[in-house]
Amino acid sequence: MVVQQDGRSAGSAHPLRSARRAAAVAAALAGVVAGAAGCGGGARAGERGSDPVEAVRDAPDRLVREGGSRARTSMQMASGGTRVTIRGAGSYDYRAGLGRLQVRLPQDAAGAQEHRPITELLAPGALYMKNRGAGVPADKWVRLDTASLNDGNLVTGGATDPLVAAELLRGARGVTYVGRSDVAGVATRHYRGRVDLAAAARAASAGNRKALAAAVKGFGSAPVPFDVYLDDAGLIRKITHRFRFAEQQAPGQPKKDVDVASTTLFYGFGRPAEVELPDKKDIYAGKVAER
To answer: All domains of the chain, ordered by start, with CATH?
Structure first.
């Protein structure tokens, strides 16, 4: 992928092409996914007579009221017989909409090459990355305008922004209560449903509205399935979104489906997240080539 100075992608290379090339860095920080516009429908009541749709849609506000937490991310991409996973970990301030993650790419196809972790700073309307792309000085950041990305950065950074992952639930449809489940030693209520991405974009907070609106254009019309696990205080402990899109393999060749499962674990609530955005002078102004 080539990134222009203003943060937009240049050229026609698809960010998920690495997943298709086996794990020859497998990965890249990812691409245009297909998603959402869902359907409504009834839902079976959860415990204590609670409405599953209401419980799920209220979860993002409950997260913001909590303030901050630690987070672990996992993004699994599968195309044909190739399956690769990108993992991340860090912290998030939900009130400020700021987060910091260390994202680790998988090894190459031979399993020998190690990749330095990519530091990502998440902010309303922007994604900052350090150690991303060939030719970028070690002390410089690459900045992407999330509203300029076809997927609104739901997949591009190799991790879905934890707050955005939660805000997708504002467009929840057809929610059912599955049952009780344990997540990292915490008792939770498991819900399953689909996201209407257009509805989620309309209901999103001001900082994420434009990025999700961009994702609506880049996604198809299929709904985005999700599983979410809420503790007894209504806090999200785990959420998984499943995206699918068709990727052109080569000119004249049929498209191939790419499946992306993006999972975020939330823990350590109440801990302040220390996120300092880079100065303008520290942002790289050149082009970034995929490595």
So the answer is: 17-275 (2.50.20.20)
203 pLDDT more than 60: yes
pLDDT given for residue 286 in this prediction = 72
- Residue 274's pLDDT band, with cuts at 50, 70 and 90, is confident
- CA distance linking residue 94 with residue 273, whole number of Å: 9
Is pLDDT of 287 > 70? no
User: Phi and psi at residue 104, in whole multiples of 5°?
Assistant: -115, 125
pLDDT band at 75 (very low <50, low <70, confident <90, very high): very high
> The tokens 């009130």 sit on which residue?
95
